[in-house]
Structure formats: C-alpha cells, structure tokens
Amino acid sequence: MKELIFLYNILLIILYSVSLTSISAIYIKTKKPVYLYIIIMFLLFIFDNTIIYMTEFLSGFGNSYNLQFMDVPAFKTIIVLGTAFSYYLINYYILQLKTNYIDYIILIIYTVYLLFIPMMNDSALKVWLYYLPAQLYLAYLASAGLYHLKKQPNLYKDSFFSRYTKLLKISLWFSLFILIEDTIVIFNFDIYSTLLLKINNRNIGEDILSIIYSVAAIKHTIKYLNNSSLDLEIKLTSPTLSEDTVISENSCISVNSNIHNNLVTVPDEEEFEQGYDTFDSFCQTYHLTTREQDIFREILSDKSNDEISAILFISIGTVKTHMHNIYQKVHVNKRTHLLHVYHTYKEELAITNVKS
Asked: Of 122, 37, 26, 29, which Cα lies nearest the Cα of 72?
C-alpha cells in the first residue's frame, strides 16, 4: 500500500512539474500575467503535495506538522490563501473582468477568518471550519465566472471559452464534493483528543481537481505550440509582397517610399513602451473597446492572428471579427494601413506636444 501511495505522490509532482514547465514556456514568450498566475498556482500545488507526502511517510514530521497545524497553521494558511488568490487572478484576467472591490473585501475577510480560527479549542469542528471557506470561495469564483459568461455570451463565443466554461462547472461541482469529503473524513476518521492527534491531510477531491487543471494547462500548451508552428510555416512559405504590390492595394492613397517604410515597420517593444501615451490616446480617439485594444496592442507587436488567438484565449474567427471592427473605426482595410494611420497619429501628436 505504501508503495502505491509513494508512486501516486511522485506521479502527482511530475504532472504538476510538467504543467508548470509548459506554462512557463508560454509565459517567457508572451509575458502575459495570466500565465504567471497559473505558474504560481502549480508551484503551490507542488509545495502542498510535498508537505502532505512527507506527513504520510515521515511519522516524526507528520506529528510535528499536525501539532503545528492545530496551534499556528502558518504554512497551510499561506498555501490556502495563495491558491485562492491565484484562482481569483486567473479568473479575473481570462474573463477580462472589471475591478470589483467586493472581491477584495471577501479576500480580506477570508484572510482575517483564517487568522482567528486557530484560536478556537482543538476539535474536529475547528479543522472543518478552517477548510470550509476554501470550498465556499472556489464555488463563489466558479459561480461568478459562469454568471459572467452567461450574461455576455457574444463576447465568449470561441472554443476556448467553451472549454473554460466546462472547467468552471467542474470546479463548482468539485467544491461541493471536496466539502463533503472533508466533512466525512474530519468527523469520522480523524482523531483530535488530548492523548492522540491523527489527521488525514490529503483530500482526494482536491487531487482530482488539480489533475484536471494540469491536463487543461498541458492541452492549452499543445494548442499554443501547434498554432505557433503553423504560423511559422506560413511565414516561411508565403511570398513577400513587393513595394508596388502593397501600394497598389490601396490605389486611392498616394504614398511615397518613405510612407511605405512606415507602413511595413512595426515598433519594437521599447518603442511601444515609450509610446504608451500615444497608444492610449489613439484608442480613445477611435473609441476602441478593451478587447479591441488588446488586439491592436498585439498587432503593434507584429503578432500573427494565430499568436493573438493563443495569447488572448480567443478563436481565430473572433480575432478577425475584432480586427474588422478596428478597421471600420479607423477607416482602413488592412494591417499596413492601420499601422500607417497609427504612425501618422503618433508623429502629429509628437509635433503638437512640442509646440505646446
């Protein structure tokens, strides 16, 4: 039996590590905060499972950890709160939610609650009350996410959000399952007497849910890599348009060679950071929505449609729809013309700033 538990723990840590590595690769390439939050989540999974593994195989460590947990559960509290906050940030970023101070108030109350629970007398009820908010908070986040997805279905039509909806539903059901398992184990199998303290620190429901999250992360990485490979193949095999070809596609605009250079030149990251005020002003002038600004920002970074799709968790069709809306608002019909309008706007704004 111990051999199976040992193998189970090793496989869990390997799965978390693979998920962590795969998401880290995407974060290094895209620098998107959501991937950093997912990395933190998997790091917490690894730390938590490592501690649980040690309590199962090292009796001395297990007794010491359990005594400390009943007195001042500092490490477990950091894990629980860190996981809850990472869940919140991931959900907030993926759904592009507006700042909601109620969520911050809930997190503050949650933190204060966990600080005061250890002051109760040692009992099964004390431990049950300690773990209760974690499942309630997970259910709250999942329910809030599902409500937001249902409230604005037009914004979340693509396949990624279909998968994310399923993940939220799974999280909601597992929050209930985990709570039931905690209730059964804490009140029927754990021992909290003055002579003997025996705590089962592992929750199978939590393990299964974390495995589901890991598989989802690995699948997303595979999809991202496939999109990147496809985009690279397209770039290598597509013929390069000549200057005359680019100009002829918009015969109603007279351009010289200097303007053409502006059309095909994309600002690097440093230039984009320096022109952030210009970007913000441009978006306000042309009334670009938050999602259209996200798309436009990636266009300025020379991202392909496939890359934008993977970075922003939206389908290719959704990317094209938003790009069409941007073109309509800026009164252009292709990327190069959009970049030309932006650079012209940037130059005019710079001249205006110098004069003022």
From this structure: 122
